[in-house]
């Protein structure tokens, strides 16, 4: 492997402790503390008046879309403030007034910066000028945009095949930027377009496409007001989608019930104090979950099968539990599913999922007669070997109940990044769509490649083995987000060139190819100005609404460019005018770009006019109960096997989760307030009985190892915290635990790394 000569770069935050303080886990989310913490973060990074003015524009119809999660805005945003604590933190992180000037990069070598924690690296400030790390050098230096484009173009021209380049996308890019980026990759000649979705909701996309014919959810925000029951499975909305709690609160106020399925009792699912209401700020808040099923890690299939089995038994009594008309008219595979359920005894399913039968019976009773059910889920279901099956079992339950294609019912995969769904809709994908290629040919006059490209877990070995030599990242932090950190780091370091289009400094700017470039870009909250006029872009939220977003703040520096401009200029430099597409024009004129998007992808037709105001819904066949794309034109029931982990004695399943103070690899702070952890990230949540078994004391220091393909992977120095988690299960934070996730272990069909069920053992650190 042709690794570059730079030595001593740290791939990860150090194993040093930061001074832990423990409190009791919280029994409610948000309330006054949430508002206070939100304001503290924004004031510190942005100053009081700038923060208050900017927050007032977030998620408002004429304002900008929150750079945090993808939860939709209400049709009539609240006048007070349509944001949450973690949205405010995301804004503070992006709109900080701290900047990284040339003195910063000449003072600190990449080696030195790499010894800092992710928290400190992120806090250093915004990137404000294009920078280059030359071969053999250990310091970034400023470079002109023109030189930067030339270097990339030269590297791309030097490749033997277009498949030697990787075009990664994180989910914060606008529809405009992502469409243009995908177009450039295809014009260059490759489908090597891994994206963060591969590590995230890809399992949902695969499962939903195979069963329902569309890889997205079917519910709308208002459906939560009509739902009789909402299941929240493998998701921690109090931290990761706080505005979803308002929707759950509305559901409850209309008499709906909530069932939560999670190995941890997450505060946000227990009780919610709505900070937009006086009663929420001062009162005791609303109890959200009616039945809490503390399932063992990755035993959701067993639990969902048991629920279906018990429902089937009830249905045999009164024939009122399953929606027979719906099953007959719209579905296929019901008998096969029933035969499969007959194979299992209730007892074996019960033992596997580890939940008290009385609780499951309560959930079954809640589900028995309602026909308006919503199932919400996130990473707790997708990031397992059988991630696709997990979601198919959710679909089974909805099909049995006829809970699709009507108000108050449906699928709700709760997306992560604020535009990850839009990026896929506009063509960011590693697989080939003949329809898309044909439309590109018609509109732009070039042939897009017909060979599938690599996704995340295949891009890394390609770089590792030298098959791919250039990596370009449109946002994100690839080295910290992907699995098997050490292997991924070596893969990036084997590249000739790595390019990051970014707002903030992160570890992927330090773990680089021989030459590395940083191309600084505007954040969401900033005005995107061209010749004095302000441009806007569009995004798609978790429920398929496409709407516009318009920045509010003055740009952090006049050297920072918008993403479409960067891509257009880069493509223009690469093709030197020898291409049917006028790249520079397209990257500058967003109206034209959107018009072309509408020509190529018909669901975006008229996007220029339709995306104004509260925007428009993209078509969704499930909402119309149109399953014509599926076998026999029916929605599909699925038969799935039970997962099998073959744990040996003293082995555990570890889930890598988010703390309350992070956005993926961006660390806002060192607290995980709801879980009672303060000022420390190196913690391992463990059941007290397991601690006893291993003779571990509270706060004892341990190392964690995983064993796969006869290799030991190890992370060091974690403090053991006794916690209410099922026996045999462990939890610790991402990205600290990413070195444990083996590169070759990922979900069947979706290839999503197994970040939520890593087989590990624990030893005392000496
Ligand atoms: N503030 C903030 N917001 C975010 C993010 C962030 O980092 N910070 N990240 C964004 C992104 S990209 C995403 S994808 C989403 C992630 O949102 P989540 O999926 O909510 O995030 P995780 O912390 O990964 O939490 C997974 C939850 O699943 C549970 N879980 C783990 N394994 C299992 C299992 O086997 N079965 C069940 N039933 N539950 C399980 C965990 O206990 C945890 O509550 O959030 C988005 N929003
Ligand atoms: N072990 C483990 N690993 C995981 C997960 C897990 O739960 N466990 N979760 C996975 C999931 S769900 C996801 S989505 C991935 C996330 O993977 P990524 O999307 O690659 O990672 P992020 O941390 O979200 O990327 C943050 C960086 O994006 C840049 N950025 C922020 N805003 C913008 C912008 O507007 N434009 C541009 N160009 N850049 C911007 C900043 O430089 C910032 O440092 O991680 C995955 N990895
Ligand atoms: Mo995600």
TrEMBL record:
The keyword RNA-binding does not apply. The keyword Metal-binding applies. Residues 652-738 form the Molybdopterin dinucleotide-binding domain. It comes from the Bacteria. Keywords: Iron, Iron-sulfur, Metal-binding. Residues 126-505 form the Molybdopterin oxidoreductase domain. NCBIfam families: Fdhalpha-like (TIGR01701). This is FdhF/YdeP family oxidoreductase. It comes from Algoriphagus halophytocola.
